[in-house]
Amino acid sequence: MMNNPDAISSDERLWAMLAHLSGLLGWAMARGQYLAPLIIFLVYRERSRFVAYHAMQQRLFQVFLLAVCIALAIAGVVMGVITCGFGLVLVIPLLLALAIYALVYIIWAAIEAYNGKWFRISLVGDWARSVVQP
């Protein structure tokens, strides 16, 4: 992927940033964090690889976070049953740490996208690149 911010228009940088910030919609409305990046990806997949890449990354990142939350919730229930509720006390701080991690990563990715960088989210960046590349 190229890394020249001058070759990327301000409109593309704005939509790439909004694709990342749309990951925060889940804190305000149900399923917004999954739908908004998908819509941005579908609109821009033919018009801008830069925007499509960032939108797909955020979509995949949100799905990854959902999977981790489900796994932690299941682990919390199992541990809660085994330990008569004490296991839940161990899982709740993990969920809070995951929420803080997601918040920081989303804002960081949005800033980098607005600066015109092909920022790679470490967990899903390569997968998003394989979806966006022709």
Oligomeric grouping of the chains: single chain
User: What is the helical fraction, as a range of percent?
Assistant: over 70%
Sheet of most strands = none
| Cα radius of gyration in angstroms | 17 Å
How confident is the prediction overall: mean pLDDT?
84
| Strand percentage | under 5%
In terms of structural class, how would the helical and strand content be classed? Answer: mainly alpha
The helix/strand order is HHHHH
Number of helices: 5
Question: Tell me, what's the shape?
Answer: elongated
Note the gap between the termini: 12 Å
Low-confidence stretches: none
DSSP strand tally:
0
Task: Write a compact overview of the structure shown.
With 134 residues, the protein is mainly α.
Question: How does this structure look, described?
Answer:
The model has no long low-confidence stretch (mean pLDDT 84). It contains five helices and no strands. It has helices at 10-21, 32-44, 49-82, 86-114, 125-132. Helix 1 packs parallel to helix 3, helix 1 packs antiparallel against helix 4 (86-114) and helix 3 (49-82) runs antiparallel to helix 4. With 134 residues, it is mostly helical.
List the helices and strands and how they pair.
Elements: H1 10-21, H2 32-44, H3 49-82, H4 86-114, H5 125-132
